[in-house]
Structure formats: structure tokens, C-alpha cells
Design brief:
The protein has 123 residues and is of the alpha+beta class. The protein has one domain: Nuclear Transport Factor 2, Chain: A. It is built from three helices and six strands. It has a six-stranded mixed sheet. Strand 3 (71-81) and strand 4 (84-92) form a beta hairpin. The longest helix is centred in the N-terminal third of the chain and has 21 residues, at 3-23. The radius of gyration is 14 Å and the shape is globular.
């Protein structure tokens, strides 16, 4: 298996582990997946949030269970450059609203971590 395929497989596994933690409201486990760099960003409900500490604080202010019952749709994951992978994911919430997620994953000393996330809900 080549280096690019290994990177894509690693990020697919990381996305799956992140989603398991998200659905379980395991905020400690969710937070592990965000890069500790101050340039890490999350855009979506809650506005623009910068840095892993602020992202964690924003998540802890949100109502629990937001990802429970979500049904995943299409997921595309591709290599942008060595050490950089993009994942785009579609999902449906139990209330029928559609969601779109984009994550930029970066290879860090700690493994693959989210350096940017963007969430949109289409109502």
C-alpha cells in the first residue's frame, strides 16, 4: 500500500472514531481529534471559533445529544498534499434537517488531527 493510501485509510479511521465520540457526547474524546495549534478553526453553529481550547469550550456550552440519531450520507475523503487530507461528509438529523461537514486533517506529531472544521445545517 502506498503512502497516500495509508494517509487516506488513517483519516477514514480517525473520522469514524471522531464520529463515535461525537454521537456518544464524549467531549473529551471529541476534543482529542482537534489540532492543538492556535490556528485550528471551527466554523458553524456557535460562529467562528479558534484554537482547540475555545472549540472545546464551545462544545461544552452546546446542548448535549446534537449528533445522536444522525444518519450519515455520502463521505468523500481525499489527499490535498502530503500531510493534508480533506473530508466532506453529509448527514441527516432525526428532525429531517440536512447537514454538511468539511474537515481539513493535518498530520501532526500526535497523528492525524482536525485543523479546520466547517458545519452547515440546511433546514
Amino acid at each position: 500500500m502506498d503512502e497516500n493510501a495509508n494517509a487516506l485509510d488513517a483519516v477514514r479511521s480517525a473520522v469514524a472514531a471522531y464520529d463515535v465520540a461525537l454521537r456518544a457526547d464524549d467531549l473529551d474524546a471529541v476534543g482529542v481529534w482537534f489540532d492543538e495549534a492556535p490556528t485550528t478553526t471551527r466554523f458553524g453553529q456557535g460562529g467562528a471559533v479558534r484554537g482547540a481550547t475555545e472549540i472545546d469550550a464551545m462544545r461544552r456550552r452546546q446542548a448535549p445529544g446534537m449528533a445522536r440519531g444522525r444518519v450519515d450520507g455520502r463521505a468523500d475523503i481525499w489527499l490535498l498534499a502530503p500531510g493534508a487530507v480533506v473530508a466532506t461528509l453529509e448527514f441527516t438529523r432525526p428532525d429531517g434537517s440536512q447537514g454538511l461537514r468539511t474537515q481539513v486533517w493535518r498530520l501532526t506529531e500526535d497523528g492525524w488531527r482536525i485543523s479546520h472544521a466547517h458545519l452547515s445545517i440546511i433546514e
